[in-house]
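Here is a tokenized protein:
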Amino acid sequence: MTVRIIRMPELSQKTGCARSTIYAFISRGEFPKPIPLGMRSVGWKESEVDEWIEKRQSLRDSR
């Protein structure tokens, strides 16, 4: 299984959330934590982001 890591520009586009909103979700424990890629770069596992999106859709559908 190939693990795909996405960076902030793609993450923001995929979720429709601004960078500040994503970091607010992370600080509240509502979003997957980033993976350190280097001294000043981070990324997210695409599969974890996809799971987060699916959970948000489930919340919407259950209301």
Notes: Helices lie at 8-15, 19-27, 46-62. Residues 12 and 20 are 10 Å apart (CA to CA). Residues 5-62 form one domain. The first helix runs from residue 8 to 15.
